[in-house]
Every structure is written in structure tokens, then in C-alpha cells.
Amino acid sequence: MNRKAFLARLEARLADAAPPATAHPPAPAPDAVPRVRFPPDERALEVRFGEALTAIRGRLVPLDELLSALAQVRTAVVTTDALALPDHIERLPLDQAERADAGVTLARAACAATGTVLLAPSERETRLASLLPPLHVVAVPRDVLVETPGDVLRDLPRFFPDGLPSAFSLASGPSKSADIDAVVTYGVHGPLAVLAVIL
Amino acid sequence: MTDLVREAGTRGAPASSLRDRERAALAGSGHLQVAIRRSTDNMDGRWRGLRESLPGAEELREAARSLRSAAITRLPELLGQLADNVEAAGGRVFFAADADEATGYITELAQRRGATRAVKAKSMVTEEIQLNARLAEVGVTAVETDLGEWAQQLDGEPPAHILGPALHKTQADWVRVLRPEGYEGGEDPDAMCAFARRTLRPRFLDADLGITGVNLAVASTGTLVMVTNEGNGRLTSGAPPVHVAVMGMERVVADWPEVDLLLALLGRAGSGVNFPTYVNCLTGPRRESELDGPEELHLVIVDNGRSKILGSPSQEALNCIRCGACLNACPVFRQIGGHAYGDVYSGPIGAVIVPLLSDGNHELSHASSLCGACWEACPVKIPLHELLLEGRAQHAGSERALWRAWARAWSSPRAFALTGAPAGLRPPQALVPPPFREWAKGRTLPRREGSTFRTRWARGEVLD
Fold first, then answer.
1. What is the average per-residue pLDDT within A45-63?
2. Residue A65 in 3-state DSSP?
3. Which of B280, B304, B328 is the endpoint of a domain?
4. B96 with B302: CB under 8 angstroms?
5. Which chain A residues are closer than 8 Å to B205 by Cβ?
């Protein structure tokens, strides 16, 4: 069906709408979409970000502990210069993410209430670098910390001044599933572990 | 699983009756009920807890209801805007009136690309249009990549729940299903999860087509928002050279603030988390300056009966964000499971929309006790119990005649007095007349205390 006919059918249905089958129809839409609030918390954004990330099985690592945290990592795909990686880690070309131990990328934003990071491809960053390797190491510049995912979703031009990229993701902790007998398992498709470093 | 239950998931009026499928679901060892109850208790309990801890949860749900309703009344305008913006970002848009048009477009695309391998990320609408079967006809093998959905596909069963496709499977069932794929471990969820990762990873990287659903489509920017906890949505849309996104036409929202609100509710009501693990937002295919991503992005917008719901008294059913909370809360679903509904959509929302979408399977509106637990659980507060009642009224038939007779009887003092008499008799189960026998099963009829009001009135005892 072409677009015109498809939409015309909908127009016709709406023009001839029956009264709703409910005694309590919805109120008119509010002028502004209400914000999703989290319980108030006075602590610093980075403290709360670390706590929220830990709650969803991620880890916030102090910069001076990065070396020991990455001791087991032999190979990595790296899309950012923001983090100085230990010398023993071999840097693989970006199209080799599938065989890398870790993907090291930059967060465009990070949400304190949920431990969420904003990831997006660019001239340097692939979609798959943060997704294929078993470990995702994400560098979070202090000035991109915000309160909630709503602060990102309602303010996208701040994070993407040149317009939206073809793909961006809000990622909260490692890949997770509860499909096997309601037992939570990690890393079924994406990273098994997520490690964040605040810069 | 019996054949009666297995045949579920095919579209249109199923060959078996709802009663037969219910009996089949209830006939087993009781394991099905235990498994479903454990999963649904878990999900329902978490959503209840989050509802209480989320500041202003009631106002947020009411606002979400109003905003969804407003978007549905603006569907033609918003879909037009969405299509313009997807095309402006380099994507292609196809409007499909029904399942044949949608699958026809996708199979033609597959043939043009010479595709033989497809990966899919969980999408109810592609189940609805039976896309996998159509793809198989043109030589394309489609692999489901959601862990639960993959197990269901390997087992030849449709999904049993919107968010937990395999929630009725025990760990022993999982071992049985994975064994032929090469799994050698035991009943160990972590080992099975690792096996799935090893087995499915090459499928993503070798696929010619990635096919996904869409949770929300943002008209203002032409962005498709897709939610997964496993990351298979990001892989399916990001790794293969062609991405096909299939959406029911009602998924559209006007702008990003609605996305914020609806994702907060979807994550909490569906998975019991403050925010879904992966929210993937796609605006067109890969740009020239980007290093990876699909060369082509196709958005297929599906009507397939939805326009029959639009403008009907049950229009609000189109507000559904497919979180599964009403399934978890429903006493009927918890007893019979998803397959007994005989369609891809089960639970209260399925019982409302299936008869409307397909103009068949009307008896589904009776798969409910009208208790309203679904309405209470719904994050966008769809009055599902009222819509179920509306569904029954539309196809009442003999039931309508029965209630009419009852209404007439109780409007006449003499007939009313007559119906009062047998109520004191407490007949043994065997003597309960057939239409009421099912209902009377397992119940003890109450004993009448003393005489009826009418008798006491006649004796002058009431105004003493």
C-alpha cells in the first residue's frame, strides 16, 4: 500500500471514531511531559554513578587502579586517547573487535542515577568496539556526568551538536538475560563486564 | 507439550477451542503453572516495588496514558513526519497494509541482496506477520537471537510471553534443547549462556540481514528506539550490511521527552529495572564518516488490522508499549500460560487485541476473570478489563440471550421469587445443571441462613 492510501485510511477511521469503551477516558495530554524523578541524593554525581553502576554489576575503577584492573587484558580495540593504557596491552585494528579482550571507548554522557553511559559511533569509534569484546572499558570525562537518562534524552543537541549520529546507545552495565529459568546470567551477547573510569 | 498447545501462535482462528487449549495447558504435571508463577511473581513483584519507590508514579502513569492517547489520535500526522525524517536520514520506508505486503517487501529485499542468512532481535510484530516462514520460502534462514526466543525457535514453539519467551522452560528443558546444537554441559545457566554467546556470535557477523522490532519511533527526528537487555538489538542492527526494522504503526511518539517517560515505565514494568540495559537509537543507516553500521536501513510500518482498532471503542489498546506487566499480573495467564491463548499476543492485552486484529478468535475475551489486575499493573493504565468487557459485548451471542432472560426474570416479582427457592436447596454437584457445572467445580454452595427477605417481609417481620 502506498503511504498516501495507508495514511488516508487512518484519517478516515479517526474522523469517524466511536466513543471509548471506558467510563474514565484519559485526561488531555499535559503541556510538558513530566520528568522521571529519582529519590533526592545530595552526594556527588561521580559517587552516585559508581554506586548505580555497581548495583547493575558494573565497576567504577579509580584511575590509579586501572593498571591492576586490566592485568589480565592482553589485546584491546581502542577508540579514545583519553585513557593511558598499560603497555602490555596490544592494540588491535578496529575491525578486529571480535578477537579483542577489551574494547576501550569514550562516554559522551553518563547518568548518576542509573549508571548509564552514552555511546555513539564517530570517525574514530565503531558501534561494535563497546559491544563485541568480553570487557568494555569506558572513559567518563567528569564534565559529561548528568543526573538521569532524561537529562540526556531531553537534551540531545548538547551531546550531539552536529546532529544525531546514525546510532547511539544508552548502555547500563553488562549484557544481561534472565531467560534461563529466571536466573540472571551475564554476557550472552554484549560485554560480560563493564569497567568505568572517571577522568 | 501437547500438539494442541504447540499449534498456538498461528494467526487467525485456531483449529482448537480456547477450552481445549486451556485443558491441555492444565492437564500436565503442574510444572507449567509452577514455572510461570515463579517468573511472573518475580516480575510482578519487582514492578510493584518500583511503583512504590518511584516518586509520583501514579501521575507519571496518568501522563503516559494521556500522551499515548494523544499520539494515537495524531497517527497520520506523526507517521508522515516519521517517514519524512527517516528518509531524510537516508533510510527507506515502506507502509504495509497487511502481513502479505510487509513480508513481500522484506523477501523481495532479501532476494535483491542475495541474502541467505538473517539474524533477528526479538520482535512480536515479525511473529505476527510470520516473517520467518516467508523468509524460509525464499531460501533465507532467520535465526532468533534473544536467548529465550532462540530456545523457542530450536524447540519449534512460539514465544510464551512478550518478555520471557521461554519462561515455562526448566533447566532440564534448556539442556534438552541445546544438546543437539552441541552443548555438552549440564543444568548450569552460566554455561548455557556462554554456549549461546559462542554459538550465536558468528551468526551475527556472517548475517546478510539484521531484522529487529521497534519499541518507539520518534517522529521529530526519524529515530528508531529499540530496547534489549542482552545487546542482541545492537548487534542485529549494527553488524549486518542491511538492517530491516519492522514496527506496528502505533509505536510512534512525537518527541524525545515522551521517550524518557515511556522508557522509564517500560524498564520498570517489563524487566524490573530503573532503566533498560541497552537503549539503541537509530537514525538512518551508517554515515559516510562512520566506521561501521549497515549500508541500508529499511523501516516497514505495519497496519495488519490495527486500523480496525483505531476509531473503535477499544482504540486505547493501541497505547500498549508491550511490557508484559499485564501478563504477569493476570490470574488466568498465570494458570494457563501464553500458548493456550493460541496467538502470538497472550495475556489480557492479547485477549483484547487478537479478536480485534484478526476478526477471529473472539472467545479470547473470555480468557479473563475481569478482576482488573491487568489495569492496575499497566504502566500506561489501559483499562483492559473494560476493553475485555467491550470485546465480550461485541460477540455475546448466546450469552447475551441468557443475560437478557435473567434480566427479564428478575424484573418480575413472581419470577424473582421462583429463583429464590432453588437457592436454598444446595443441590449436590451432580445435580448442578450443565452450564453451571464447570463453575461449581471445586466450590461449596453456600447454605442459606434462615428464610428469605421476601418470606420475612410477607410475615411482617421486617418493619417490626
1. 97
2. helix
3. B304
4. yes
5. 98
